[in-house]
Request: fold
Amino acid sequence: MGMFDSLKRGLARSREAFAEVFYMGGEVDEDFWEDLEDRLVMGDMGAEVAMQVTDDLREQAAREGLRSARQLRDALAKRLAAEFAKAECDPFEDVPSCVLFVGINGAGKTTTVGKLAGVAKAEGKSCLIGGADTFRAAAIEQLEVWGQRSGVEVVTRERGADPASVCYDVLDRAEKDGTQLVLIDTAGRLHTSPELMRELEKVVRVTRKRASIPVRVVLVIDATTGQNGLNQAKEFNSALDLDGLIVTKLDGTAKGGIAVAISHDLNLPIYRIGVGEGIDDLQTFDAMDFARALVGEGEGE
Ligand SMILES: Nc1nc2c(ncn2[C@@H]2O[C@H](COP(=O)(O)OP(=O)(O)OP(=O)(O)O)[C@@H](O)[C@H]2O)c(=O)[nH]1
Reply:
């Protein structure tokens, strides 16, 4: 199954919801626009985006005489694609680069680090993984497994060690070896825990200070968390000044709209999306592909 197929399958529910709005032969009347706005809100796009997109589309439809389901769907997909913040660089391609992965427990940080290490290795880039989740012994083991799977070395310390010291170690090592890509996994934490957020601020500060290569902080967010994802992203962003996002679990039951809401609201680009648990289930984000998978294309879908 191709990458775009897994994304399409994951977002099937969302497309079905839009198919009901766009069904063939339906009138493009007041009810249509109301229904469309409701579906956008229900799809986790957030009220502000939903209203703006509906208003803009309505004007465009009147101006350009758009009436068919195909035309309207196409215009909606383009309009939604324009909501995403654009990436100025790709921290996994524009090397040398050090990327810190942050997010709540279970968002998919470790898995994403493993997948990205696999890609770097396959592309022939030199890569090191830093295991700064020294909180749980199982987290270190899980990362070691991903290290073996991807063929990338993991630099870490014993359970209970200062996570910032792991960042020092891995950057030291990267400097000596001339490593192109350094991926640092951090312990999951709730954005509502001030103490753990302060610890993470320190990890980020130390890493930014120590590194002689550009450091980017990337929030990994589970798309199935819905609207709560926006609160998470706001808190992490205000504490850490994020560079971008990776949205995971888009192969599951996610509505997908949360990706639009967060990227737009915080003006943060999405670098990659996770579409499964395997090493190959990571996709470079393409706003138009994503928007099409979300709302569908053509008449019948
Ligand atoms: N279906 C699906 N599952 C995913 C994806 N990414 C991660 N997972 C699963 O989500 C679960 C949690 O992933 P982890 O990578 O351990 O998450 P984490 O953020 O490192 O978790 P903590 O170490 O607790 O902070 C695992 O069972 C992963 O296999 C994805 O894109 N799709």
